[in-house]
Amino acid sequence: MNGEHPEVCPSDESGEKNEIVGPTPILNYVNCNEDTTGEETANDFGNVVAEHGNGDDDASLQSDVAEILENLDSLGENKSDHACLQQKSHSSLKTLDLAEEIEKKQAFTAAQPMRLEGVSRGSTVLGYFDVNPNNAITRIISSQAFRHDHGSPHVVAVHINYIAVGMSKGSIVVVPSKYTAHQVDNMDAKMTSLGLQGDRSNVPVTSMCFNLHGDLLFAGYGDGHYTVWDVQKASALKVITEHRAPVVHMLYLGQDTQVTRQFNVKLLDETTSRVVCASPLLYGEGHGGTTMSSQISSAVSTSSISSMMGGMLDEGVVIFITHQSALVVAKLLKSELKVLEKWTVESAAIGLAWLGDQMLAILTVTGQLYLFAKDGNLIHQTSFSVDGFQGNDLIAYHMYFTNTFGHPEKAYHNSVAIRGATIYILGPEHLIISRLLSWKERIEVLRKAGDWMGALNMAMALYDGQLHGVIDLPKNLYDIQRSVMPYLVELLQLYVTEVFSYMSVSCYSQNINGDQFNEIKEQYTRVGGVAVEFCVHIRRTDILFDEILPKFEDAHHKDTFLELLEPYILKDMLGSLPPAIMQALVEHYSERGWLQRIEQCVLHMDILSLDFNQVVRLCREHSLHCALIYLFNKGLDDFTTPLEELLVVLRDSTRENATSLGAPNAWAVTRLPSNVAHANVLHLLELDTEATLEVLRCGFTEVEHSKPTLSSQESTNLNMDSAESQNLVQKVVEILSDILDASYFQVGSPICSDDVDMVEVWPSMKDVDHMYEFIAYCVTFEEANASRDILSQIFKYLTSEVNKLDTASENTIEILKRREKQLLSLLQVVPETRWDASYVLHLSEKAEFHQVCGYIHAIRHHYVAAMDSYMKTMHEPLYAFSFIHDMLSLLRNEELDAFESAVISRIPDLFKLSREGTYFLIVDHFSGKTQYILSELQSHPESLFLYLKTVIEVQTTGTLNISRLENLDVLDSPGASAQQQSNGVQAYLEAISCSLKLLSSNRVNVTDEMMELYFELLCRYDRGSVLKFLESSESYRVEHCLRLCQEYGIIDAASFLLERVGEVGSALLLILSNLSEKFVMLDAEIRNFSSNTVLDNLNAILKKKVVADILDIVHACIGLCQRNSPRLKPEESESLWFQLLDL
């Protein structure tokens, strides 16, 4: 380091310097991701070194704004887009969906590209220290005459008022120096020399420290004695000679001289490595002279360290450095030293000390200065040099220690000292003063160097409490922000003033053409973006609108400024605007035709911060309907007023906009009562019938579905609300009924017309279907009544065929299931006198709604017919068995006898419906007729098989799996009657659950004849389960079963039985008998893929079932040979394997 002008090197995270361009550095932003070059710029701050930092990068707010601007740049706002999109999508989108798509497009549409950068949020790295070797002490100790008389400097000690340097010939130089945290050291040219007379006059000084007040200086010497000096009188108060080894470390801890003496003469040693320095963190200490130095060469245990440090502090952090470059963090807890963390630095450390109570400075032998946080994270690293000195010669050292070989070893004790935020490094002919820059100085360095973005970025990090290496600020974030706020405001004002000054000169010094005007506007956009983001970040929008905006107005770029606010509003970073700014923003966007964009801005505003009346007036004047709805809903909890206004707009709309706005058809208006309620509902229904009815459904049923436990008064209010809601539902149903009646009998209406290509006619068939479903839903919940004619229309709709063109979201089967549930729920609510049972039964039979047919037969007391209908619901057998269970419990006398006979006669079919349900039916209701039922099943072999399978399953496992019986399609079944039906099914399930617990005591006795009959039927109806049965059962005749397996061609089971009787060879041949046929099939598959590539052929063929069958056969053969080889003779085993290999 030399005495030239100080250096500033603002750099990015890579440490590369950023370019400061021409006379307008404020306008050329620093991009932290670009590599730039440039010369180092002079300033007034000493030698400031820019080095790599380790601070975390801030999250970029600019990226959030960019998300919006990408959409704004890529889209153009053209009125023809609305009509084009509508015309293209009208046939495939609902009206509301179409409007929503158009709104989304317009919300992100810009008339021109916008560009906004804001503050470049990177990690602007700056040197943390002002390093300067040019001072009075350097000039003194580098003098040849002084060195001749006093020798070379060995140790340094500092106090808030003094700096002392100990020399190799025994003298001590004390220079008065007042310390302040924000200024360079102010050293007095007058110095004081301290030295003993006599034999000890030339003994080198090896350690020093001041007391707290600075009037006493403790000095240790190479012969082991130490002296207490009176600094002001320049005289020795006391000389202590009890030590013999050099005193290389001294630390003043207070008035306890015994503790001080003990600490000074003891050694610190961590296990086997010699510790060269210890630095305690003493909370509340002043600017005393805590020094960085090494220890003497003897050692003590860790317990000794505990006893020594316990006198200093009870809860603190102690840092040790070994000469192997290892750093150890330890904490003293109740006189016990606990190691917390260990890490290493790049080269051997020679000293360390605390900067404040949050940072630790570490100096290495190579001239590297590290700055660590207390948690061990590296904050900063820098290196320094002095002309004529480098490497090991940069720092003063002594050679009192010897290594294990007996050779002298360099030791850097007491060569570094700290007071406040300044580090003093003693060299052979110099004293380097490295002062930690204050937060304001760091920002000023960047500002004066022209790096405005770096300065503003650092200011924002400071405001967030994320600036590292700061010791001159409060600890609390709120106090920090309050302390730095005036300077941050001043910094922004300076930035804007400088930019505008330059731009005013540029604008008036030349004739401006179109391109130059755009460039100037872009520059205003940039500076405005920086100002907006900075003010938003520090929460000082008053500065933005009161002081920054007037500058844009004076420069005739107020519109540019207003456009800058939009991205920050849409990202919820700017939630409120003054009334005048809000009005100007709305008017400007309205003039430019950006109504959708300003509407989006209003939707992101904080309503409490707005002038409500003003914003409502603006929204009404400019037809910002979405914003108007938002204001009334959120601001006043008023949902009626905006709806009324929208309906007025809808009714007053012109005919040419009828398609998009939903003006009602003339034929419907002329045939409906001309009252306000009908008109409003008509408008909404034609706008989107499905959406309107869905909203009404949710609103009307909310009270019914949520009735918590309330007090009597609350219950009364709720009942009133419920009654009012029911009246409204009835009114809506009546309106829909009028619409349906008017359209149903209208000649050429969509309901009567077969012209499927008819367009632009309301209500369409789909709209009518939605009305039918809404009325059915309301009637099912008993919230409204419908006329007999409307009910007939609903019945016809629910049982009609499904239009496959309208089933994109769900398949036909699911639609039919849902309709059947709706119809069944509706019939259970509506009195029988209001619908024709025969007519509905005919419709249901045609639509194959078997549950509905069963219900109608049941209410007509045709129980057998009802049972037959329920039995046809193959996918939900539970309803049939639940109905049979209920009837057998409810019927009496002749009806019961007739029904029982009908049930028994249908048991073969019931087994096919559900063998588990039928088994429980027999056990619960026909346990005395088991033999009769078994005999009747002889003529129905498949049903007999299912019965025997169930009996044997109960016999072997003691239970029965009823999961298939419990499986029901989960569909919405509205209404109280549906709940009753569900309760009946649930009661049946509970009944069979009770029967499950009694199965072990109600088992059917399984005879050998039944078992052999079951095996024969198993071979006939469930070939895949034969082998499993043989492997898990023992009660069968092998010869009988083998004959049946061979008769039915069940190869795996037959080979298993052959192996069991010892005919292994025959079993192997039987398994291999099917292999030839499989290879023929494989050959045919291969020929089918001959036109493709070889690799494609191979992959496709390997996925074929025939390949899997061949592999199964081969695996079965190998398993057979492996199982039987150990028990066969060697020649038999070889024959068996060769028999397999020959094939």
From TrEMBL:
Which keywords appear in this protein's UniProt record, sorted alphabetically? WD repeat
Task: Specify the superkingdom.
Answer: Eukaryota
Annotated Vacuolar protein sorting-associated protein 8 central domain residues: 561-756
Q: Which SUPFAM superfamilies match?
A: WD40 repeat-like (SSF50978)
**Record organism:** Rehmannia glutinosa
What Pfam families does the record point to?
Beta-prop_VPS8, TPR_Vps41, TPR_Vps8
Task: Specify whether Transmembrane helix is a keyword of the entry.
Answer: no
UniProt xrefs under Gene3D superfamilies: YVTN repeat-like/Quinoprotein amine dehydrogenase
Repeat positions for WD: 205-239
In Swiss-Prot or TrEMBL terms, this protein is called: Vacuolar protein sorting-associated protein 8 central domain-containing protein
Spans traversing the lipid bilayer: none
Q: Where is this region: Disordered?
A: 1-23
Q: Which InterPro entries match?
A: Vps41/Vps8, Vps8_central_dom, WD40/YVTN_repeat-like_dom_sf, WD40_repeat_dom_sf, WD40_rpt
Q: Does the keyword Cytoplasm apply?
A: no
Family to which this protein belongs: Belongs to the VPS8 family.
